[in-house]
Amino acid sequence: MNGTERIVIEGIGVVGGFGCGISDLSRALTEAAFSPGTFDLSTGSGTVRIPAFQADDSRLVEFIPVRTLRRIDRFSRLALLGSHLALADAELPEAERSRLGIIIASGYGPTGITYAFLKSFINDGDICASPTYFANSVHNSAAAHISIQLGAMGPNLTVTHFHLSVPSALATARLWLAEGKAQRVLFGAVDELSELIGYVRYRTRDAGPAVPMTPLRTEMETSIPGEGAAFLLLARESAARCGYCALDASTTGCPPISGIPLPEPGLLVLGADGCRESGRRYAAVAQNARVACYTPLYGSMPAGPAFDAAAAALMLKGGRVFPSPGADFRDFPATVPAGGDPVGGDRISCLTLAGDEAYGLTTLGKLSGTTGECAKEE
Amino acid sequence: MSGAPIAITGMGCICAAGGNLSDSMEALLRGERHPAPPMRFASDHPIPHPVFEAVGFEEPPDLLRTSAFALHAAREAVADAGLDRKTLGSLRVGVCVGTTVGAVMSEETFCRGYLAGGVPDMAPIHRILRSNPADVIAREFDLSGPRQTVVTACSSGTDAVGIAGSWIRAGLCDAAIAGGADELGRITYIGFISLMITDDSPCKPFDRHRKGLNLGEGAAMLVLASERVLRRSGIRARSFLLGYGSASDAYHLTAPRPDGAGLRSAITEALATGGVSSASVAFVNAHGTGTPDNDRVEGRVLHDILPGVPFLSTKGYTGHTLGAAGAIEAVFTAACLEIGKIPANAGFETPDPEIGVTPVREVTTVEGTVALSESLAFGGNNSVVVLGKA
User: Fold this and answer.
1) Could you report the per-residue pLDDT of A89-116, keeping only the tens digit for each?
2) A102: chain B residues, CB-CB within 8 Å
3) What is the spatial distance between Cα A297 and Cα A295, in angstroms, rounded to a whole number?
4) What SS3 class is residue B45?
5) SS3 call for A191
6) Best of A4, A41, A83, A147 to disrupt the B interface by mutation (most B CBs within 10 Å)?
7) Nearest residue of chain B to residue A140 (CA atoms)
8) In this predicted complex, what is the ipTM?
9) What are phi and psi of B98, to 5 degrees?
10) DSSP B39
11) pLDDT in tens, B277-292
12) Cα dihedral value A207, A211, A216, A217, nearest 10
């Protein structure tokens, strides 16, 4: 393994509020079309209906028998669907699955089944706690289900670091490939909008039907919770058959805002998700940069940066920028290119800002040579 | 495939055996252990299951107990390394922490309030959101390097140490604070009892009559540093992280693969990345939870891969500290290499013919400069670090 060898994104699997699969994501990006649904939430003052981007995991039965899915919770189902879509997109032969490394990033983990476990003993006493719910509530359960279903016996990691989960886990995926710890890594980010997370968001964010999301309007709260899974099949370039683009870097850190190493020139995809306090920080970092933002298509969730990376991969492959939905960004102190404009450079970076002034930055690059010429049709 | 050794310049630990590494090691070598029914929380289970609590440790109200443990161990490790804040500030220092509950959005009081249709106090949720263990350590020491919170169940601590070593080898940071931390609470206690893998008496790792694990709590942190940092700051290496391996069973959510294939792969990889032969291993600090399945699979793998190599489980002194276990056992392993002896495997009396190997029964002198620390985890994770004497 050459230490400077590039890492290639061979396959993408996505499911979210926009639909299921790379074609649905491409369509939503091209049309800047978003249509959040609603989520009914029990609160102390009755049921409240909040806007939300929910994912439909029904296509999972195309890959896994219904009988097998009986005891698998929604969090893991979303992850299983994303993983199988990515493998199908890459057309990875079944024989190569056993050697896969698996890395899952999640901001909050399997909160639905965790809450169900708590309910099992809160309602009926400690002795009635559900062992099935407990087993599935362990944070690496999705990674375990994927490895079991695929027979993948390579290294297996789950990272839960709130909004830094994705860039942090992608950094480890790159390391594994660079070290030769795995020849391919199936990376995925997943978050579910459970009753518990919905309620926490209801209590912590400003209330109000803020539709549409306008994340580049920093003076107001417009975040809408989302859920879904975004998976990337990663391989060293020498082992890759086809690819969307290269994963050239992913890092996290905590320097002052002026110290974030933004690559120039290039498009910067912002993870701004309509949360007012982080929106101001994005505006400060992105001053005078060329930026795009796609969170209005899938909503606000810690797994979001993986969807940003998928969007960046499609743009690098196609050479054109997708329009930024949530049109009201006139006052944002940066240039927002129109849909169809050239990407303008060989690289796109995805920026995530978290608490403590921490940041995550994932940089993808255009492929050249035979890997790049092996077209991935969108 | 092998990489340069990574210096371990400082270590810290808190668990039921002691409030720091030195006290913990002394307790282990004295054969002292104090499992007892939980004192910090109550349960209506008819039979109390003994646990290993870090008695006397009080967390500040604004932090999760897990993160307070992590911080306590990190402070000891940083002091042990002889690093002051000015030096830390001049370096790019990363933080990698393993945990099972330190990043979980569940809190019983809050959930009870919500379930009852009330408007529960948000303070527990805010505490969780500001208590991610890696962030808490980075914030305390004002660190600017990469951060990661690893949640691979019971192998989290081992994985965090191995990943931090990779960061330094790859030049992502100059040094790292790495380890694991977990508190023991009602949710974990009730959950493990529901799985019927806990012992209602003090645990007996590798014993024929073992019935399950006892839960514990605590944290351990290691300060890892590059060769450049050692040269520049003049600090010493206490021991070395030589290798790291991890592999998945792809078998079951909570049971280890019967043929131990994942663990075998992890050991093989750890030895290969450490550039170490199995013949040079002085001892193994095994996962050894005391559950029938874990100890049978792990014992058989040790019998096959490392025949005749002394091994022990230290969980008889600490309980199973879950996400902290791999880190606590890594610092015990390094400390044992320093003094050239290992404690007895507490709780072991009767050999199990199904396993075919027996752990050490008394404090045992070990020769050699290399040892392994192993972790097996829910989800089928298997992780191993190779540690070397300075």
Assistant:
1) 999 999 999 999 999 999 999 999 999 9
2) 248
3) 5
4) coil
5) strand
6) A147
7) B152
8) 0.97
9) -95, 145
10) S
11) 999 999 999 999 999 9
12) -60
